[in-house]
Amino acid sequence: MTVYLDGGHLTLDQIKSVLDGKEDVKIHEDAWAKINRSRQTIESVISRGDVVYGVNTGFGKMSDTLISHKDIGQLQVNLIRSHACGVGEPLSERVSRGMLLLRANALAKGFSGVTNETLQILIDCINHGIHPVIPSQGSLGASGDLAPLSHLALVLIGEGEAIYKGEKMSGKEALFKCGLAPITLQAKEGLALINGTQAMTAIGVVSYLEARDLAMFADSVAALTLESLRGITDPFFPESHQVRPYPEQQEVASRILGFVDDSHLTTRQGDIRVQDAYSLRCIPQVHGAIHRVLNYVKDTLAIEINAATDNPLVFSDSGHVISGGNFHGQPVAFAMDFLGIALSETASIAERRVERLVNPQLNDFPPFLSADPGLESGLMITQYVAASLVSENKTLAHPSSVDSIPSSANQEDHVSMGTTAARHAHLIIQNTRRVVAIEALCAAQAADYRGPEKLASYTKAIYDFIRSKAPTITKDRIFSLDIQKIEKGILAEEWKVYINEGVS
């Protein structure tokens, strides 16, 4: 299968397929005419001697400095080299691949003035699996993701570093191994490659895709915990959710009821107790609000992945080349901060359910679900770990989008910090996945005490997934390994296989 790019119709699910290596990428044939007209507009600007930012001027505060015609090509190379000053651990190959894809899609809109060769080499890098090594820190999230995208662009001109087939090498070597040659940048092309929001957006897309699946798994594990604690199902009945009609709240309530439909463990109001704790009773309200945030993030990303975010923008129909501000990452910054806050709450409520599973004062299980309490500590310290991760998330969830530091001699005096927001959101998601894995480990052990055969069909499938990674605890062992295996299984979406097999 092939994903065709035209700058306007790329979907999040298509991005996922490309990130997973399941589909190659091509520029849609209808897009090439617009791309060529855009390039012709740039050539006309040059031939007329018009002064246009980034074409024949310096950058940022030096935008009033005119560049001679003979130096226009060198200007673009100098831009890439000087701006490639990112620091920190490299972004994952998945994010790097996403950046290549999103930049290609943005250029395919036909408002950037690039040559066919420059756009094609982005496509070639995706299809051959060449992933630029891109340091994760150093973007302000306005004027585009300048530093990260410069490291991407280095590889296209045969410089920098790339990962190819799991091996780090020079950008030039990676291209040559695939039968590709470095490009020679023409007027505006360096700026067209780096003035955009593709680093924050690629991190954002990867984070959203992980968060979307994690939120669904968190619903599933919450249902297993509800059963293991003999929770009350009345709070999930539709009546109370119809009078507070958030669609996502209603969906979660209905989903949980469906998950435990044929359970022999859940109870009704007054059977054992009149009310459950908030971490059980309010699952629809909290998880529903989290899903609502995910929908907002999805809508924002759906716009951003098909947006022209470089500067200046080339409008061939009017002949205008407009220097504006579409590179400013504020929409993505807000969405990423919101995503981080929402997923930190996923971890927060999950940790409270862990406490109810291991604390003997809150349940009728052996202390800490231990096989031999006293001699063995059981799952006592897993709650400590969950609490630590939740606390760390609270610091990471401080919004980056409310911060701004002026740059370029105060010419660029307000920035979004969107890339920082996206990086923090992804860290929160990783932490949250570990907390949910801990809840899964504890809930499965609690289910063992009740009798797994009493579980509903759906939650039994979730239980079977957990047990495929972590067998029933009969004595103390190194639980870190269990948590890691469950976490990896969640990330790889292996649990869905158990659902399909166990419920069908």
UniProtKB/TrEMBL annotation:
It is found in: Cytoplasm. It holds the Pfam family Lyase_aromatic. Keywords: Cytoplasm, Histidine metabolism, Lyase. GO terms for biological process: L-histidine catabolic process to glutamate and formamide; L-histidine catabolic process to glutamate and formate. It comes from Terrilactibacillus tamarindi. InterPro entries: Aromatic_Lyase, Fumarase/histidase_N, HutH, L-Aspartase-like, Phe/His_NH3-lyase_AS. Signal peptide: none annotated. It catalyses: L-histidine = trans-urocanate + NH4(+). Pathway: Amino-acid degradation; L-histidine degradation into L-glutamate; N-formimidoyl-L-glutamate from L-histidine: step 1/3. Its EC number is 4.3.1.3. Contains an active site 4-methylidene-imidazol-5-one (MIO), which is formed autocatalytically by cyclization and dehydration of residues Ala-Ser-Gly. GO terms for molecular function: histidine ammonia-lyase activity. Belongs to the PAL/histidase family. This is Histidine ammonia-lyase. The keyword Magnesium does not apply. The modification 2,3-didehydroalanine (Ser) is found at S143. There is a cross-link at A142-G144 (5-imidazolinone (Ala-Gly)).
